[in-house]
Write a structure and sequence with these properties.
Elements: E1 5-14, E2 22-31, E3 34-39, E4 48-51, E5 55-59, E6 61-67, H1 82-90, H2 99-115, E7 118-125, H3 131-144, E8 147-152, H4 173-181, E9 189-195, H5 203-216, E10 219-224, H6 235-242, E11 249-253, H7 259-267, E12 271-274, H8 276-282, H9 289-294, E13 300-301, E14 304-305, H10 313-326, H11 343-350, H12 352-357, E15 375-379, H13 391-398, E16 404-409, E17 412-416, E18 419-420, H14 425-442, H15 448-455
Parallel strand pairs: 1-4, 1-5, 6-7, 6-14, 7-8, 8-9, 9-10, 10-11, 11-12, 12-13
Antiparallel strand pairs: 1-2, 2-3, 5-15, 15-16, 16-17, 17-18
Helix pairs in contact: 2-3, 2-14, 10-11, 11-13
Amino acid sequence: MGAQRLLIRNGFVVSMDPDVGDIPNGDLLVEDGTIVEIGRGLAASEAEEIDAAGMIVMPGFVDTHRHTWQTPVRGVLPCCTLDEYFAAMLGNVGGHYRPEDVLIANHAGALEALNGGVTTLLDWSHISNTPEHSDAAIQGLQDAGIRAVYAHGIPTGTGENWWGFSELEHPADIRRIKETYFSSDDGLLTLALAARAPGNSNFEVAKHDWGLARELDIRITVHVGMRLASVHVNHVKNMHDLGIMGPDTTYIHCTDSTDEELDLIAETGGTASVAPYVEMLMGHGPPPTGKLVERGVRPSLSVDVVSSVPGEMFTQMRTALVHTRIGAFTDTPDEPFAPTLTHRDVLEFATIDGARTCGLGDRVGSLKPGKQADIVLLNANAINTAPMVDPAATIVVFADTSNVDSVFVAGRALKRNGKLLDVDLASIFRRLDASRDHILSGGGLLPEWAEQTAAV
């Protein structure tokens, strides 16, 4: 059988690769899921051709930290604090999840990501209540066809102490998961360990968990520096003192991390994930985007909790941009306003820097021959985007999910002409409703209108 070829013609290519650059009226040739050529006037026999005139051709967004399992309870905590979130989601709601709830959560949540042009997400899955819950999480991602890092975490809502200086080691089931699903890391799904910072677990447990991840040869992703009930914990300093920091670790939030701790992340080659919308919504602390950039740590962006936050990257890019520029305000009007962060920076955060954060920078995050064909076509000829002057500005400042015309993962079309492909959305919505009703009824949080609707 011959090679499967796709030729995207006449688009404005925004490659996010310094050597390829931006190419107006550009063509992009894909063969067997890999980009083989980018230029103008490309010729290819026996290729499916897509006319991308009026479109921006860009790499898919990369979301480096999303609790996808919360999709069925979307909006249950739209204006909560971090303390309220911990009490409601981790102390209550998570304990009512069945494996089938995790399955529809991850399936629908990944479809939501794809619909918004997110072709890769890191699923920070601390809903590993049983092995069946973990299997369901992986199955949901597979069913959607997204590229994902499945970050296996701890159980939630089980009544066991997994957070308060816990003595419980990371669930050993991760070994079974690695052997069953991730014997090779060449597929769309790869494995990571969603760790608790030392201080959430005790120090011996932290050393065990980091050692476990390194034994399995997988990346580590960990929440640090969140301001909870005005209590500051030096998570990163604790890791440094334990000797477990390294370039295989991604530090999420860092909103209450000290300058010394941010220096340590930079010195040890760590990566960072900032979720600016939720960090300001819930009171984690000011997003440290600018502080990280000053230290040479190019942060990535993430959605975080879909129980409270929209699941697309346009909100994250704009929030990161304006918050960091506000941080450049001076104390007096006599001093000049001299911001350094630009729209192009946050587009890098949401694409190539996100790919590097996930350990996938050699595969995705930019459009370049030899990389996987994770591609988004963004409609620039729309009432909210036309006329186009600067394509990067069109993406960051003006576009939204409605402009995402087409999405390809490894060359496979998952959205075309503004519609997800081969998805029974009516069935998805019914399953989400049923899952919401079960979970929130168990947690005593089902709104009265939903009870009335279910009774009709």
